[in-house]
Amino acid sequence: MSENSKRYWRSTQELTNETGFVRNANEEFPGLSNPSHANNEAKGSGMELSSHRRDFLKVMGFSIAAASLAACEAPVKKAIPLLNKPEEYEPGVANWYASTYAEDGEYASILVKTREGRPIKIEGNTLSSITKGGTSTRIQASVLSLYDTERFRGPRAAGKNVQWAQADDEIAAKLKEISASNGAIRIVTGSLLSPASKQVIADFKAAYPSAQHVTYDTNSAFGLTKACKIAFGESFVPGYRFDKANIVVSFGADFLGTWISPAEFSKQWVSGRKVNKHNSNMSRLYSFEGTMSLTSANADHRNAIRPTEEGQYVAALYNAVAKLTGAATISVAAPANAKFIDEAAADLVHHKGTGLVVSGSNDFNIQLLVLAINNLVGNIGTTVGTEATSNMKQGDDEAMSAFVKELGAGSVSAAIFWGVNPVYDYPQGAALKGAISKLPLSVSFADRPDETAEACQFVCPDNHYLESWNDAEPLKGYYSLTQPVISPLFKTRQAQDSLLKWSSAKADFYTYLQEYWKAHMYPQQKVRDNFRDFWTYSLHDGIFEPKNADWRTHAAAAPAVTGHEADSHTEPSGLVHGETAAKSEAPASSAKGFSVDLGSVTSAISSSAKGSGFDLVLYESVGMGSGRSANNPWLQEFPDPISRSCWENFVSISMTTAKELGVVVDEGDTFLLNVTYNGVSMKLPALVQPGQNKNTISIAVGYGRSVAGKAGVNVGKNVFPWISTANGYASNLVTGVKLEKTGEEYKVAHVQTHHTIMGRDIIQEATLSDYKKDPSAGHVSHLISTPEGPKKATDFSLWNRHERPNHAWGMSIDLNACTGCGACVISCQAENNIPVVGKQEVLNRREMHWIRIDRYYSTNDVSALGVLDRPGALEIPSDDPEVVFQPLMCQHCNNAPCETVCPVAATTHSTEGLNQMTYNRCVGTRYCANNCPYKVRRFNWFSYPDNKDFAINPAQTDLGRMVLNPDVTVRARGVIEKCSMCVQRIQDGKLTAKRDNRRPKDGEIETACSQSCPADAIVFGDMNDPESRIAGIMETEYEMRSYRVLEEINTNPSVSYLTKIRNKAEKAHA
Amino acid sequence: MQVTSPVREPLVTGGKTLHDVTNDIARHVEGKPTRLWYISFIISVIVMSYGIYCLYNTWWVGLGVWGLNKTVGWAWDITNFVWWVGIGHAGTLISAVLLLFRQKWRASINRAAEAMTIFAVLCAASFIMMHAGRAWLAYWCLPLGNTYGTLWVNFNSPLVWDVFAISTYLTVSVVFWYIGLIPDLATIRDRAQNSISRFVYGTLAFGWNGGAKDWSRYEAVSLVLAGLSTPLVLSVHTIVSMDFATSVIPGWHTTIFPPYFVAGAIFSGFAMVLTLMLVTRVTFKLQDYITMGHIESMNKIILLTGSIVGVAYITEFFIAAYSGVDYESYCFINRAFGPYWWAYWSMMSCNVISPQLFWFKKIRTSITATFILSIIVNIGMWFERFVIIVTSLHRDYLPSSWAMFHPTRFDIGDYIFSFGFFFTLFFLFAKYLPVINMFEIKMILKSSGDKKSKPADVHAAKTTTV
User: Fold this and answer.
1) How large is the ipTM?
2) Residues facing residue A917 across a β-bridge
C-alpha cells in the first residue's frame, strides 16, 4: 500500500488559515459558546472547549432521568393542612361533646369523643341523673353505625338516586294532592322521646289535616301503658326506681338486659347491691321467668315458671301479699310450683314502699295485677313513679293494628316510616310489604337499606344521630339534647327537616329546636337569665333537669359563658364515678289516683289461654335488640351474655327437652330443630339452656334480616312473624309450638363452651347472711404447709418485687355489681380497635375481644361421687343453676408468666404495674398466650385489616377506618395483643396532669371498660394514691371480699375481684 | 489395641475383606442410582413439593390456616418440633456416647444416624420458623447487636435457651459428622473414575492423605468432639423440656421433664434409626454390616428407654394425685379420660406397652417385628408430645377458655413437608455419601477379624497337609 498523502480541506478558510476559522475550528457548535466562557478563558484552563459534548450528555442524562422520574407517580397525600385552624380544634387532642342516644328502644345521655373531627367513641354522661354515665352494648356500638358503608348516599326515588330538590318537589306535590282529596296520610314512628320532633309532627299534621301519627314499638310495652291508663287514667310507663327498692320481684321483665331502659335500671339496681364492711344492706331480686334472661341470671332467687302461667303466679303473689296485708284475695288457680312466692310476698310486705314488682308481659291484665300488688304494699309513687313517668315506650299496638288493617284495605294514601321497619319486624310484615308497594305515596326515612325502605317509593335518608340535632325527654321533666358532632357524611337530611320542608315551614330543625326550647324549656328554670346562656349550658351538659336538685346546684355553680362553647377538651366536671346511690331528688311521691277492677282482671287471667305444647318466648337479645343494628359487626360478634354465642339466633331448650330430643351441644356442634307454630316451620339450631323451664323454648328476634348489608344480611332467622297480635296487643309469648329434631347438624359460634367452674375457686361467693356474720365469708385463702406451719401461697416467690415508684395502676371488679351486660366488651372494642373476625373464626375459637365476661352455672352436688367421676359430673350445669358473671381481661400480673417466656422481650413490665405488649417487637411465638393462666392473650391469626376473607371488619374500608382510635395501633398479622389497661388513656391523663403541674386525680383516668360499665362494677385507679377509690377498696376489703383469681400460683395480678354475695331469703328453700 | 473375645458374635459378617468393605459401600456412591432410589427420591420430592405449597400458605396467609386457637396456641407445630429434635438424639448418642464407651458395634450405623440427626434437627428448625407469627423476624431471637438500644433477647425465656441449644446442637453435629466423613471422602476421591468426582470429593476431603499424622489428628478431634457432643445429648432435650417445665400450665409445670424428655428422645431416635437402617440395609444390600447383633442391641436400648418413659408417665400421675393440686389432678384425669383420651391411650400403648415385647428374644431378633415396632414407637412418641402440649393447654385453669384443637389440612401438610424434606435429604445423602463409615468398619474388621483369617488358615493348613 502506498502512503496516501492526500489532504482534504473542510473549506477554503482552513486552507488559508483564516483567523476566524482557526478560533472556532475545534468547537462543534461555534455559535453556542457560553458567554461565561469569556471569563474562564482568561484562566486558560482549556476545558471549555472540550466540555460541551460532556455537558450535552450530562444534560441529556439529566433530562432522561428527570423525565423518567416525572413518569413515576408521586404518592397522593390526602392530608390537607388547615388554612385556618378552628379555635377549638387541636390535632391529636380529643374533643368531647355531650349528646343523647335515643334509638332502638334505648336511651342514654352520652359524651362523644371526636378526634380530628371524627366521632370515635361514646361514653356515658355522668351529669345525667337518669343514666348516670351508664351505657349499653348498643349505645357503645352506635358510633360504628355512623361509618356503615351501606348507608344511603342521598335520597332515592323508585330505587334510583335523585336530588333532594326533586324528591322534595315530588313528595310535597303528592302530599298536597292527597291532602286535597282528604286521603289518609300516616306517619309511623317508634316511641319519639323528642318533644320538638313531636311538635314537628304536630305541625305536619296541621299542614296536612288528614295526617295521623302512629307510634309503633318493636318490643312494645303496650300492656303496661294500657294498664296505667286503666289504673291511673293516663297512658304511661311508670318511672321505676330500682335504686329505692329493697325487694325487686320480676315476672319476666329483663330490666337489666332489654326491658324499657336497661342502662338506667342497671345503674339504679346495682346501687342497691353494693356491700362492704360498713354497709351490708343489699336489695334482693326474685325472678319468675321461664327463660334465662340477664335479670334472671342475676336473681337471688329464681323460679323458672312456665310463661303462659305467669298470670297465675302474679295472682298467687297478689294473694300471698293480700293475706299478709289483710286485703281481699282473688280466685285464680294456684300455679304448679309456687316456689319463692311466699318469701317474695313476705319480703314485699316487710319492705312496704321499698319493694318493686315488675312484669315483662304485654297482657294489660297481668300488668294491672302487678300494679295492684305494688299498690297493696305502697310502692306506687315511690318505686313505681307516677310523676316523672317514662316516655321510653309509647307504642300503641291497637293503633298499629288499625293502621295495618287500613293499609290492607287500601284506605291509606300515603305512609311515612320514620325509624321503624315494620316490613321486617311487624308480624304481618310480608303482607305489609305488598300493601306499602301499592300506596300512592310511601316514604322511608331509613338511613340505610332495610326491608321497609326497599318497599317504599321514596327513601329520604335521615342523618345518623351523631350528625343530628335533637332533644329527648326520657322521663317527664328530664330533658337532654343531641348535637351533631360531624357534618353529614353523605347527602342525608334529618327527618325533622324533611317533614318541616314538606309542611312548608321556613325554619330548619336546628332553629326550630332552639325556638322550641326557648318557648318550652327555658321558662322551666330560673338559673339562667338569658336563653343564649341557657342553651349553651344545656348543650354543654347535654341535659336539662329542672326537677333535679343536683342539676340546679351544678348549673348555678357553673360560670357564665358566651358564644358557642359547647365543647370541652376534657369531660364536663363531676365525671367522677363513685357515689352512685341516687342523689337526685325523688319525684314527688303523691300518687295519682289508683283504681283497678280486679274482678275483670281475675276472670281474664283465669280464662287466658292455657299453654299447650311448648311456650315460645320471642325475646330481644342484649346485643342485637330488635335487629335495627344488624349491619353493625361489633354487635353481631358480641357474645350473648347468657349463651355466649354470636352471629346467630337459636332456639333455647331446657336440659330436659334436650334429653328428650336427644340433642347434645358440644363445642358449638348442635342440631337443627324444626320449630312449628301456626303452620309455619323454621329450622333453627338448638342450644341447651340450663335454667330454662322445661315447657318453654325461646328464640331471639332481631335476626334474619333480608335487607341489611354485608354484616347483617341473612344472619340467623327472622322470628318476628311469630309474634302474636291475636289479643289486641303484640305478644312475644305464644304457645302450642311443636319441636322436632331434624338430623341435620349445625354449628353455632360460641366464645365459651364450658359452663361450670369445675369446683375451682376462681369464683368466690357467699350469701349475705354469712357475709354479715363474717365479712371474709367466701374468701378462700390458699395455705401451704411448711415446717413453720401453714403459710400463704403468695408468701413464696422466686421473684424480686417490681418497683412502683410512681403509679401502680390496678383494677377492682365487683362480681356482685357486674350484671354481665357486656357494655364493656363493645366499649373496649371501640377504644382499642379490636378487629371483627366473623362467625367462622369465632367457631375456630379465635375471637379477639380483650375483655370477656365469663358466665358460669352452678352444678349439682358431686361430693358423693368418686374422684374419677367428679370431673365429668362437674361439667354438667345444674338444671336450675345459679349464675355468675366474671369480667376477665389481662390481669397485669406482677409476676407475669407471659413476660418471662417471651424470647424477644416483646411483653414487659412497666414501672407503673402494667404488663405491656410491644406489637412491633413481637415475633409471634404465642408462648406468652400458652403460658397465660387466664388465657387473655389474643393472636392475630390473619391480617384482619386487609385479608379479603374478613370484609366485615370495619378496618377494611376507608369509611370504616374512620372509627379507629388514632391513639391505638392497628395490629399486624402474626402478633399477640391483649388488654393494655387503656394505656393510651393513662398516658393522656398523665400528660394532662403534668401540663397542669399536678398529680392525676382519682377518676380522671378511666379505662374504657370501667367508664362504660352501667353497674360501676369496675373500679380503676392508682393503688399508690392513698386517696383513690381503688386504694380504699384494697385496704378495706383486704382478706375480706377482695381476692385475686388463681392467687395460689402467685402471679400477683393487679386486677382483683370482690366476692359475689347472694342475698338469699332466710327461710327460702333453695 | 483392644482385645475382643473370640466368643463374641462378629460385628461384620460374610467374611468381608477390607477391599470388600470399600467396594460394598462406595459402590452406591460411584455407580448410577438404582431404579428404587429414583422412585423413592421422586416420591420424596413430590411429598416435599406439596409440603412447600402448604408452607407457602402458612407463611403467606397467616397461621390462621392452622387449627390453633386462643386457648391452644401450640399444637402440631411444637409437637413436630420436639418430635424431630428427639429423633435427632439417637445420632449424637450413637456417635458420641457410644464412641466414648468404645461400643464398636456403633461403627455400622453411626454415619447414617448422624446424618439423620442433622436432617431431623433441620426439620425441627423448620417448625421453629413455621410456628412464629412473623417468621421473617425470627432472627430477633438471636442475641445480635442491633440499633434498638438496650433491646436484646430475653435470657429468661426458655425459647432463647432453645435457640442456643438447637443451634449449638446443629453446629456440633454437622462438624462431627463432616470430620467423620473426611477419610471416607478421601477413599472415594482416590477411587474416582472421572474428574468431576475427583474434584468434588477431593475438595470435600480437605487433602486427606491417610498419613499417620492425619490419623492422629483425626482421632484427637473425634475424641474432643465426642466429648463436646456428649453433654449435648442431655442438654438439648433438657432445654426443650424446659419450654414446658418452666411454665405455669398444669401438665407442663413438671420437674420430671428433663430426664423424661431425654429418655424419650433416645427412645424415639433409636426407633427412627432402626426404621431407616432396616430400609437402607435391604435396599443397599448391607446385611453383612448391619447385622442382627446391631438390631438386637438397639432394641435393647429401646426397651430400656421405653421403660424409663413408662415410669415417668406413671410418676406424673402419682405426683398429680399426691400434690393435692386440683388443677394438676384434673389435668391428668383429663388426659386419660377427657376428650383426648384416644391420644393418651395411643401414647401409652405405643410407648409403654409395645416396647415391652422386646423382652422376648424372638421379637427382638425379628426384622419384621422390629420394623413395625420402630414405627409404632415413633407414632407413640409423636402422641406423647401431642398429649403434653395439647391436652395441657386445652383445659387449663379457667374453664371458660377451654377449647378443642382440630388440625386443618395445613397442619398436616406442614408436617408432611418435614417428611418430604427429611427423606429428600436422606436419599441425597444415601446416594452421594457413604452411608456406612468405611474406615471404622475396617477397624473393627481388624480387631474382631478372626473370622476373616479363618478361611485362610484352613487353606494354609490344607496346603501344609498336602
Assistant:
1) 0.91
2) A907
